[in-house]
Amino acid sequence: MIPITTVQFGPEEEQLVLEVLRSGAVAQGPKVAQLESRFAKLFGIPHAVAVNNGTTALVAALQVLDLKPGDEVITTPFTFVATLNAILEAGATATFADIRADDFNIDPASLAERITDRTKVLLPVHLYGQMADMDPIQELAEARGLRILEDAAQSHGASYKGRHAGSYGLGTFSLYATKNITTGEGGLITTDDDVLADKLRVLRNQGMRSRYVYEMAGHNYRLTDLQAALGIPQLERYEKTVSARRHNADRLIEGLADVPGVVVPRQLEGRGHVWHQFTIRVTPEARVSRDVFVEKLAELGIGSGIYYPKLVFDYDAYRRHPRVVISDVPVAQQIVTEVVSLPVNTTLSDADLSEIIAAVRTIAGA
Ligand SMILES: *Cc1c(COP(=O)(O)O)cnc(C)c1O
């Protein structure tokens, strides 16, 4: 089976983890600080604050914005559940804008329609490695005095008109095992705001400014040095990782360009896609349904994934939730029935790529 995700660690990771083990100091320490400063420098963002996962990164980012009960955060319904869980954990109300079919991300036109007097935060998710259309989102935020929080869990180093993900105010990243950069579990919050960065550092450590001096009701969101040690070498070779993913995506795009009923993903003008996922759409015009398509891929030895099988609010737990406001999202409703992610990871050989292309063409009757 050609796997949809792989995890690769090299001798650099082994050596750094050993170094931490032998130092005897395994909790948050110098390696965490190093991971933060290197991440910030690599992507040209003033501050990066490490936390224990991408979900707590979102929660902490929302918490430092001091939201009040009834305040609304607008996001996309086509995301991983963590985005919604974080909004609810922070005590805010979640509302939803529709998405665009060309980048799978929040549609700024729909976003504009969903802004109310209670809206405080616009929360675009940069899905699959490509950023949302940030210019109109930024214009909306400025015109209406709103904050932007980017969920960039899947988009380390992605760019929009030369600007990196996480540089529009507050951004969060995941370092979970399947992400482009991983520490097993881990997360980062980026910001250009000195005050917010300082607040985040205090918040993640029980609200403690210095030993037993508490400044706010905080939490333990800390990452460990053992985990940070895993992430540092991956940052150093991240450019290579991304170019391998781009190479794979280019091959797949070329090989699948003319397959009937299948729409291949695109890197839109002005955007730098980091190809966390390579997600095709199996449309109603295809010869087989999306679910049969996925079964046949498995039979042919090709791993695939459906990210995500339902819109995030489309579960009883959320449909009944008093702080989840569901609205009409026709594009997202359609897209969620069509997506299939194919392997694009750095371990793929040329032969693997040919095999993936051949399998898709066979199933679709191309
Ligand atoms: C992975 C992911 C998260 C959560 O990150 P964890 O590190 O798993 O907590 C949040 N949002 C999106 C879009 C993700 O893909």
Automatic annotation (TrEMBL):
<keyword id="KW-0032">Aminotransferase</keyword>
<dbReference type="GO" id="GO:0008483">
    <property type="term" value="F:transaminase activity"/>
</dbReference>
<dbReference type="GO" id="GO:0030170">
    <property type="term" value="F:pyridoxal phosphate binding"/>
</dbReference>
<keyword id="KW-0663">Pyridoxal phosphate</keyword>
<dbReference type="InterPro" id="IPR015422">
    <property type="entry name" value="PyrdxlP-dep_Trfase_small"/>
</dbReference>
<dbReference type="GO" id="GO:0000271">
    <property type="term" value="P:polysaccharide biosynthetic process"/>
</dbReference>
<keyword id="KW-0808">Transferase</keyword>
<protein>
    <submittedName>
        <fullName>DegT/DnrJ/EryC1/StrS family aminotransferase</fullName>
    </submittedName>
</protein>
<dbReference type="InterPro" id="IPR000653">
    <property type="entry name" value="DegT/StrS_aminotransferase"/>
</dbReference>
<comment type="similarity">
    <text>Belongs to the DegT/DnrJ/EryC1 family.</text>
</comment>
<dbReference type="InterPro" id="IPR015424">
    <property type="entry name" value="PyrdxlP-dep_Trfase"/>
</dbReference>
<feature type="modified residue" description="N6-(pyridoxal phosphate)lysine">
    <location>
        <position position="179"/>
    </location>
</feature>
<dbReference type="InterPro" id="IPR015421">
    <property type="entry name" value="PyrdxlP-dep_Trfase_major"/>
</dbReference>
<feature type="active site" description="Proton acceptor">
    <location>
        <position position="179"/>
    </location>
</feature>
<dbReference type="Pfam" id="PF01041">
    <property type="entry name" value="DegT_DnrJ_EryC1"/>
</dbReference>
